[in-house]
Structure formats: C-alpha cells, structure tokens
# Entry
Amino acid sequence: MSYMSNKSPRPSGGAPKRTMTAQLRALSNTALVLATVLMVLLVAFVWMATAIKKKDAKNTDDTTATTTTSAAATEESTADSSATEATTAETTPETTPEATGTHASYPEGTKLIALTFDDGPCEYTPQVLDTLQKHGIPATFFLLGQNVTGTDPQLLQRMLDLNCEIGNHTWSHTVLSKVDENQAYEELQKCDQALMDKIGQKATVIRPPQGAGLANPGLLKYALEQREYCINWNDISCPADWQKPAMGDAHYTAQHVIDNASSYDCVLLHDSHKSTVESLDEMIQGLKDKGYVFVTVTQLLEATSDKIGIDEARAQGWTDAVEAYPGGPVYGVRYEYSSNKYFFGKKSY
Ligand SMILES: [Zn+2]
# Structure
C-alpha cells in the first residue's frame, strides 16, 4: 500500500511547466515529422514525374520503331498474305485503292489466286470460314445487305479476323444494268450501311450481281466516291457452281477449279451452295499442292495493277469507266470475256 502511494504521487506544483515544455517539444517533433513527410512526398513526386517523362519518351520511340519496321516490312517481298494484311492495316488504317499505295509485291513467278464467295452471309458461311481457318488462307465475301442485317456481327468479325475481305454485292441482288443511276447508287449504299451498322466499317470492293451494269453511272459514281474497287471474276476457273454438273457435285467443283486455275485468277463461288462449301477442303488443298498463294481481291488487284495498266485496258476497249469520268481517277476492273483477261486501272488523267 505504502509502496504504491510513494510511487504514484506526482508533484502537482511542477506539472504545468513540464507539460508546456512537453507540448512545445511535441509540437516541434510534429513539425519535424510533417516536414520530413513533405520532403519524402516531394522527392516521390519528382521521381514519379521523371519516370513518367522517361516512359513517354520510350513509347514515342517504340511507335517510331514500329512504324519504321512496318514500312520496311511493306517494302519486303512477301507471299504471306496475313502478314501483308496486318502490315497494311498498321500503316494504312483505311483500305482504299489510294491508301494502299504501299501494297505488297510478290516474288517473280508467285502464283496468286483469289477465292470469292457471293450472296452471303448464309447458313453455310460458318463452314466456309472453318475450312479457310483450317488452311490458314483468306478469301473475299461479296455480301448482300439484306442478308447482313440478319447476321450475327461476330460472324462478320470472324471474316475480318481471318484476314478475309468483305465486298459489297448490293442490298438485294438487283441487276444494276436493269435499273437507273439512282437505284444502282442506293443499292450499293444500303449494303454498306448495313455493314456499318453491324461492324462499323463498309466494304472495300464491289461486285455487281451477275457482273452486270459496270457502265451504270450510279455504280461508277458510288465506286469512285467510296474508293471501292469493282471486280467481276475470271471464268476459266469458275465452275459455275450454281449449275450442273458442278452444282451438287463437290468433287467436280473442286477438280474443275484445280485443273483450270492459272495465276491471277479470281474464282467465283457461292457459299449458299452446299456442294461448293463441301468442295473447299479438296479445292484448297489441290491448289496449294500446285503452288498457289491465296490472296484477297484487293491484294490480287494491287499485285496485277503493276502488270495490267489502264493504258492496256483502254487499248482493249475498256472505256466505260474512263469515259464516264473524264479527267478523274479510275478505280475499276472489267473482265473481258473475249480475251479472258481482266483489267484494272487506278491512274489519274
Ligand atoms: Zn450474286
């Protein structure tokens, strides 16, 4: 008891003075701590600012490096269509005839071929994509706007993911040689609008139904405004898969294309025909065995544009696009059945 009382009492007289000193000390300690914290914060801020600045500089360098690499890659001769497409997308976000000036060139003697599928999307389109994916090759799909509206956007996105090209085949498969300028223009515009609504981008190429109406001013006007190539097909390799004997005979369809293929062919097929879809695995393998490299229509056109110029097209009597737009650039392709050639032009006059 006494021990506790001796220990516990505090001199009451000195307490205020000692408390004040302690308070002052505490205050100065607090100020010191605060100052230290502020210093630490300041140092941290300066360090972070420097780090961010360095990072920005590094990113800029990376971008420059990527661009340089892309440019170098574009110059390089490559037969790898997927790499080419990726490179083109990086350097030229908008795939237009004008924008794709840095198109790939292929080693001399490379046999190029473009498979095209008209009238979709339809029930067999996923199966076509499966086969393309299996073989790692691209193709071009000329879609109908009225079919696009009922299609899952993921299917269209899958086409793009597989490096395929999407083409405009009008809204309702209207034969453009039988309608006036305004109707032709509207048919093409509505198809592109349907694509915009689904995947946020329009077609890059046009194929008029039945290959007709290339001289319709509405088609020419639209193609020029939108910078969309216009292309039909090459009938040497086309098995007319909508008719007998190809129709209903997958093996015949495959062999017809394999046996008749030649370089720069643009093969017309329809993913709406079951036998065509079933012929693809054999067809693609057979063409691969013969050394063909598969490209999209735009890639085919850009590769051929070096070889088949507008002058030759004019000499061969291809005048409709030229005459319709005197003085303007010409973007277009016309297949000449008589000479079994198609012509491409993109020069300005
Ligand atoms: Zn068609």
In short: The first helix runs from residue 2 to 7. The chain has two domains: 1-73, 106-345.
